[in-house]
């Protein structure tokens, strides 16, 4: 038996289907799974489970989609799936299944404030009379990934006993066209000077508590220019580490962190999925729809809409309020337990 799962999106989108994907793996214990997805889907979910044996890339862009859609339809027909689960509300993916003549369960638009992960789980429930267990988002971290991350951090002077707080400031909007970038940045990027102020507040707190604190930003080489202002303004309190992509190592670094402070980004979901607590910053989007899908004690959400100046976007959230949200996740004394 072969089961097809369709989700084409960014890193965070892919992480959010993991509860439904795990439910399907339990529901069809003898099945082989194929995933029609994006390059990010391959990166995020390769290694999630050995029964996911094939990754098909769905082309982005109108021209590429037109050129390759017929080939994709032919491939889907040749595979002969017992069922397809379409975790996409976009009608073009629904029509793809009709053309390919594949039996499919299709995601529909739900009322607002229903988390996307829960909507995907509901789709799985609707297709079976068997019980479907609720699970949170998850991503496995291999022992090799942990070892590579430990060596990587050691190279940058991070000791095993250090309490690591991570900052992540960039989002997919950073590479968008200029107008779109300006329009979205206020909702997706917290100001560099705010990150620097938060670094000073955390450093002062760590000194008073005798806490061996390290503040870390782990970014890709092409992202360095975007975060260097934070490092410069923090006067060395933030350590910047950067290396070519290695997703297993990156998950290991995130798992090492005591806490990650980030706007609504893919790394927010990846960190949550490896068990790292979060302080997540939101503006314009509802965390009830796309926030961290983990137990409530694992994160704090701060929203621009809950401030006096929501028109400023994420800049309406002060460094002092983020610092206060960080404190419950940090040890209250020199003990690191």
Descriptive report:
The chain is of the alpha/beta class. The protein contains 14 helices and eleven strands. Strands 8-7-6-9-10-11 form a six-stranded parallel β-sheet, with helices on both faces. The protein has a five-stranded parallel β-sheet with strand order 3-2-1-4-5, with helices on both faces. The protein is globular and about 65 Å long.
Helix-strand layout with pairing:
Elements: E1 2-6, H1 11-15, H2 18-27, E2 32-37, H3 39-45, E3 52-57, H4 62-79, E4 83-86, H5 91-100, E5 104-106, H6 116-126, H7 143-155, E6 163-167, H8 178-188, H9 192-209, E7 213-219, H10 224-233, E8 238-242, H11 247-256, E9 259-263, H12 266-273, E10 278-282, H13 287-290, E11 299-303, H14 319-326
């Amino acid at each position: 038996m072969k089961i097809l799962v369709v989700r084409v999106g960014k890193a965070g989108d892919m992480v959010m289907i993991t509860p439904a994907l795990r439910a399907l793996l339990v529901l069809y214990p003898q099945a082989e799974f194929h995933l029609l997805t994006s390059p990010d889907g391959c990166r995020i979910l390769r290694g999630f489970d050995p029964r996911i044996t094939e990754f098909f890339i769905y082309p982005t862009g109108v021209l590429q989609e037109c050129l390759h859609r017929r080939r994709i339809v032919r491939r889907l027909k040749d595979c002969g799936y017992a069922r397809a689960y379409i975790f996409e509300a976009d009608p073009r993916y629904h029509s793809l299944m009709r053309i390919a003549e594949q039996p499919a369960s299709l995601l529909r638009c739900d009322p607002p404030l229903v988390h996307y992960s829960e909507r995907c789980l509901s789709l799985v429930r609707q297709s079976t009379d068997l019980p479907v267990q609720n699970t949170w988002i998850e991503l496995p971290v291999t022992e090799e990934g942990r070892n590579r991350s430990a060596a990587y951090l050691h190279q940058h002077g991070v000791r095993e006993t250090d309490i690591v707080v991570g900052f992540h400031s960039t989002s997919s909007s950073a590479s968008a066209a200029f107008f779109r970038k300006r329009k979205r940045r206020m909702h997706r990027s917290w100001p560099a000077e705010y990150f620097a102020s938060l670094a000073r507040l955390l450093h002062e707190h760590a000194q008073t508590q005798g806490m061996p604190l390290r503040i870390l930003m782990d970014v890709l080489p092409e992202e360095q220019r975007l975060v260097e202002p934070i490092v410069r303004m923090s006067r060395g309190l933030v350590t910047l580490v950067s290396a070519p992509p290695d997703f297993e190592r990156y998950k290991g670094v995130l798992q090492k962190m005591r806490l990650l402070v980030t706007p609504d980004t893919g790394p927010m979901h990846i960190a949550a999925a490896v068990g790292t607590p979060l302080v997540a910053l939101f503006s314009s989007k509802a965390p009830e729809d796309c926030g961290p899908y983990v137990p409530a004690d694992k994160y704090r959400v701060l929203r621009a809409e809950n401030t006096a100046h929501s028109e400023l976007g994420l800049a309406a959230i002060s460094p002092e309020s983020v610092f206060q949200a960080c404190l419950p996740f940090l040890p209250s004394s020199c003990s690191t337990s």
